[in-house]
Structures are given as structure tokens and as C-alpha cells.
Amino acid sequence: MRYMSADDAMKLIRSGDTICCQGSTSVPVMLQEALTRRADELRDVKIVSGFNVTTGPAPFCKPEYKDSFIVNSIFLCADQRKHVAAGYGSMVPAFLGEVPYLFRSGLLPIDVAFINCSLPDENGYCSFGISADISVAAVECARVVIAQVNKSIPYLYGKCMIHESQITAAVECDIPPVAMEFGPPTEIEAAIGGFIANEIPDGATLQIGVGGIPNAILNGIKHHQHLGLHTEAMTDGVVRLMEEGVIDNTLKKNHTGVSVASLALGSKHMYEFLDHNRDVEFYDVAYTNDPFRIRENPRVCAINSAIEVDLTGQVCADSIGDMIFSSVGGQHDFMYGGSLSEGGKTFIALPSRTLKGKNKIVAHLAPGAGVVTTRFQTQYVATEYGIVYLRNKNLAERAKALISIAHPDDREELEKAACERFGYSFLRLK
Q: Which of 108, 153, 401, 427 is most buried by a 10 A CB count?
């Protein structure tokens, strides 16, 4: 391993390079900070990253660096969101599962990879730890690989390894991944979670995200049997079910007996649980998010969230109007793969209103809003007022169903909009 200081490693960066930074709760912030110390010497360095959880804004996201560093986010998070909203960077629209192909094909060339990896094992292999997602492909394609070799990164199995000989420059560090703790679900989250939990059968293969609603769902299935896990993001909630034997992966057809994920974010306990755990394997998102691999498992239950849903079932999950909030991520990959699975079910979970009282079941998506899941793919939609199934319904029937789970104070307005839009086909349903 060629160890050096972070500042010395940054001498390998050239103006015009494209850098891919590892993400999840394992962002190589030490390397990013060192990069910004060369801001006066560099121009037009493009920075690509996926799903990031950090304790503050990315070091390169400052107006004074606008000519040095250009943000091209794959999945916009809080560390870069304000910078992009201010016009200093942008987002590359792409299904998360196809990002490795963009790298490997040269459509989105990567010159440098910043990673935050484990210590090497006895054979010289470091693990990408809790963020295989887009990092595996970035490392394959990069001219230069700069690694934070980190004592605090868990060693994970699967296809998420890099040999020390592939690392151009190594920087020693001992920085724990960001710990994420979630409190108990709110009353609204618990209600939504309960409706979805009731639809999940024993033997289901789960894809589930992060936050209060997913935690409420996981609480609701703690007495299920023989669940499997094939997901994008692993969290504390699924780890609890693994520890309790609820998730045992015995009925999965793909990776029987093993939980599969691409990234992880959660507590220190979760990271310790994952370290050298043979019951868990991590792969890049081209593998985990392949809809035709997802469908191989039976009874896939894919649960995702939304910013708003219109009366026809169109799901916006990446923007608030024309302001980019995140990206499509893996929602489309799992909604499609889940719908193809034998006995599979897909769910969109959202509260009926925002914290500011704005309705989330809407007559029309906000101007500029992006459609992440099309009306042709939407199956179940759940709010705290119930759960409805849209797949076999016409547009007027969908509107009626969605209005029934909207906030009661919004239903009259939505009914008027539905009458104007769908005419007698809606009126005859009342």
C-alpha cells in the first residue's frame, strides 16, 4: 500500500478530471477537504457522487469554488442540494442501476475514484464497506484511485473488494461512518406502516428504504416468517429482523440464505453487526437493482416513498416542482422488478400532507415535477387514511381510490378536479 498524506495524494488530480466520490454514510470527506485546498490551482474538475449522508455541506460546495469544481450529482442529497439549487451544479438523470454502465461504457467517463475502504485482509484485499453501489464501477474505470484506508469501516463480503495493488494512493484514517438514529414512528407513520405490513405475506423478499415509515412497516412484520432481503439500502430495521430470525432468506431463489444489499446506513450497532458477517453480501447497483434479477425472488415487496402522487397514479419522488430534491434512485428498478416477481407487490407510501399542511395527493403534479414511477407501474398507494390498489383501475377509478386516502380536508377540492378532468366517467362512480 502506497501511503501518503491527503494533500500529497491530491497532486494526482488534474484540471478537467472527473472524480467519483463514494457515498452512503462513508463519504471520503478527508479527501474532499484536501481537494478543496487545491482550488486555486484546479479548474473544471467535475465531481460525481450518489446517495450521501454527511454531517454538513460538501467541502467543495462553496460559491468561491464555482470555477474549480462542478457538481454533477447522480442522487442529490443535503450535502449538495443548496449548492445545486443556487445554480452552481446540476444532476445527471439516470436510473441508479444503470450508473455503473454509464461509467463502464465511457458515456460518463471517470478519471479518479475517491473511496473510504476497510483495512486490507491477509491477502491484501480491502472491502468497500457500506457503499458498494456506484463505487465498484468507478474504481474499475478510474485512472487514479485514492483511498481513505479506514480502521472504522466494516469489512463486508460479496463483490465489493479492491486489492491494495489497485490503490494509487492510500491515506490512513480512523473516522467512523456517520451514525443514523431514528426515533419511534409518529402516529401517521405507524398508521401507514400498519396498512402496508398487512399486505406483506410470509416468505416475502423485501426492498425497503430509510425513515419512520419503513421502520413502522418493519415493526408490523416482526412476527412474519421466512422473509428475505434483496434491497438497495440496508438499515437498522432489517438488521433487527435478521437478528431475530424473521429475515432468514430461506425461500429466496437468488442468493438463498444471504441478505443482499448495495449500501448501508444506520447505527454503530448495525456497522458492527455487518463487519465480517457471512450472512450478508454487498454488490454494485448494476447487480442489486437489475429488475430481471429482482424478479427471480418470489413475492418481492418493494416499498418506496413519494413527494406527491397525482390522481392518475403518477409518482413524483425526485423534485419539488422544478427544484431537484434527490433523483430517481432505485425506485423504478424495484417497482418494475417487484411487479414482475411471482406474487410480487409494490407500494408507494406517503403521508396525506406535508408538515406544512400541503396536500401530497394532488390533482396535477406541480409544474416542473418529475415522474419517477409512471401511472402504468403504480400498484399500491398508502397514506395514514388507508391503502388502495390501482393496477387494474381506469383513470376515473384511480382518482376515486386516491381521493379516498387523501386528507379529508382536501377531498372536496380533489373531487371537483376529478369531475372537470374525467367528466361522467368519474361522476357515475360517486
A: 153
